[in-house]
Give the backbone structure.
Amino acid sequence: MISVVVPVFNEAQTLRDLHRRLADSLAALGPHEILLVDDGSNDGTWHIALQIAAEDPSVRLIRLSRNFGHQAALSAGLDAARGDAIVTIDADLQDPPELIPELVERWHEGYDVVYGVRSSRAGEAHVRLAAISAFYRLLSSITATEIPRDVGDYRLLSRRAADAIRSMPERARFLRGMSGWIGFKQIGVEYARDPRYAGESKYPFKSLLRLALDGILSFSIAPIRLVTGLGFALVVFCVGVFAWVLYVRFGTAHHPSGWTSVIAVVLLLGGVQLLSIGVIGQYIGRIFEEAKQRPLYLVDEVVDSREASDPRSASSSASF
Ligand code: UDP
Ligand code: MG
């Protein structure tokens, strides 16, 4: 069975077309389920989702208790999916559902992770694309994990790959990095990314920055190494300056003058120290988040027309 997991946040306008295109693409693939994870929408998305589930028995719904974010919604879908292969796809039709048979074919060939590679991205601002591409270049240069470039959250995971990801307990979820980290046989499939079908991006620049930070800080300690190196270089530099001052004072007839240089050094050191504390603080904040061990998401409601006997579908406000 193929499961398709769709995180949905205020996508009322696209939901019907999404469902139609998904159903068309899945029809030839045998048994399948479509899991819509409503990430705390407030625009009538849930209402439409209920209608769709009433018409199509292969649709299952999960509503989270509030907006937990894209990565948490995806995780909720992975936890609930029952398929032998799980496809995750955005709800806004930027990733064409028509590609799913090709992903499945690669899976049949023996690949555990088949990810969609965006060969082009229409309808997104140049500044945004440039920032995203710079981020991926930076990320791959500082992390040991192989994280493919131009890859979003459109991918197929085999059952064991999905279970591997589910076994990773971290709160800061960066699924693109995590699915690279697990290894197994992986392959990319190229596709042209369409512009958003309707509505607007739920990733304003701020959330994108957050995701980028999650990516860097959860996959690398390069920032800590950087400030350590910086601190070391500054100590060496200051020892040199100090030696020079002593030499001028005692070795020559001059007195070293320079209120300016003193202030410059103080400011420089102050700045570097603040920066270093900030970087260390980022990691400590993350340790704090992980240490709390809160669930990634809470489920408000589950709708499953096929298996009313499933204990998970009967209970509301439970978490998987
Ligand atoms: N999404 C979500 N929760 C959020 C933000 C987004 O479930 O808090 C979903 C959204 O409905 C969409 C997917 O995540 O299906 C990707 O979001 P979006 O298309 O806005 O991101 P972009 O493509 O602009 O990066
Ligand atoms: Mg999108």
The pocket of uridine-5'-diphosphate (ligand 1) is lined by residues 7-9, 11, 39, 67, 69-70, 73, 90-92, 94, 201-203 (CB under 6 Å).
